[in-house]
Amino acid sequence: MAITRIYCDTALQPECDVTLDKTASHHLLTVLRARIGQSVCVFNGDGKNYLGTIESADKNRSCKIRITQALANSSESPLQTCLIQGISRNDRMDFTLQKATELGVNRIFAFRTDLVNQRVPFERQQKKAAHWQAVIQSAAEQSGRAQIPLLQLSENLATAIAMAKDSPGIIKVGEKAAGWLLLPDADQKFKTSIASKPGLEAASIIIGPERGLSDSECETARAGGYEAVTLGPRIMRTETAGLAALSILQALSGDF
Asked: Which of 12, 137, 212, 255 qualifies as a FRET site for 50, CA 20 to 30 Å off?
């Protein structure tokens, strides 16, 4: 039986006690039905697993865990991946973020597109970003990861591309890194392009939302070094295309 895992946004080390916040405590004690004396795995995104034991749980659902051991986590792919995703509507974005995390993505840059119907106020964007971050954390818990993918919001594609290039350890398009723009009518197939780049260490993918990308945005991507490719003869939804691309990358250059 797999050990229960829980995320905790605090410094962790062996032989220390950590008290989970109300949300994490509720999830561990009520949703996952953990009990006092049970062994659990705590992680904070630093790449390690911290084994511990639940020491106490009071009536306010506050939970204290005694950390006993730090272990290396081997769940991260050798291929660094970045998803530059046009913000989609309703729960489609939740689905994309959840599954991309399960597939091992390292960075996600969510951007607003030229064809979006309306601009969302900044306050609502921040609230949405907090919700999306919680989705990512939950997916990391479930999938056994000990690193939390970075999520950043951008007002346009050009800014998202710049942010991806400046992000530490990721996507400098060049000899061992590549970037692709997924378009259903592109001339070149994705798998053919990947095959022409042996020894790939980092990869970045641009996906448009439901209404797609404008001509100007496609030109911006190409100018940024992103190669237009197609996944095949069928047109995929926005929440499918990025996940299919990440799966292909993990199969050909990652850890699948």
From this structure: 255
d(CA 190, CA 21): 44
Place of tokens 């479930």: 142
Q: Give percent of the chain above pLDDT 70.
A: 92
**CATH class held by domain 4-72:** mainly beta
pLDDT digits (tens, 9 = 90+) for 188-236: 999 999 999 988 999 999 999 888 899 999 999 999 999 999 999 999 9
Nearest to 207, CA basis, from 108, 139, 122: 108
CATH number of the domain at 80-253, out of 3.30.565.10, 3.30.43.10, 3.40.47.10, 3.40.1280.10? 3.40.1280.10
